[in-house]
Amino acid sequence: MVNLKGKHIYLRALEPNDLDFLYQLENDTSIWEISGTLKPYSKKMLQRYLDNVHRDIYDVKQLRLCICNLDDVCIGLIDLFNFDPKNRRAGIGIVINNTKSRNKGLGAEAIALLCDYAFSVLDLHQVYANILEDNAASIHLFQKLGFEKVGIKKEWIRSSTGFKDEILFQKINDDVS
Q: Domains in the chain, ordered, with CATH?
């Protein structure tokens, strides 16, 4: 069985007491560009989401986990999305909320843990990430973890400065046929 605990962080399911963290994160306009968010979320709407977060990945096609430090403080979220059991693939997304917690290896540890889970428990053949062309830190992170650049979606994301390319990265599980 996969252990969702690393040296510095662990991954856990969302809990009802994560409402304030989720509210803060989802309403942080600085990350709306990467999350595709267009409007603020109310606490009532996020509470409805939390009330249904127990649903199975095979049903909702998504798994969202909290990234917690070893002091049990939630520092970010990591997702599997667009889960496709037939083709055995899913997208992966991550956000570390506090900028002071970034660039310390915590995101790499979280991605490695989730990939291990995706490959060994969900029996996925591949995971992929969509990263904006100007997000050098994320590009470096995913490449360091063995994700390969496989394509560019030209002028894919509209931002305040114009359209940006989105780069598609993919990691194939060579242990699965």
A: 9-172 (3.40.630.30)
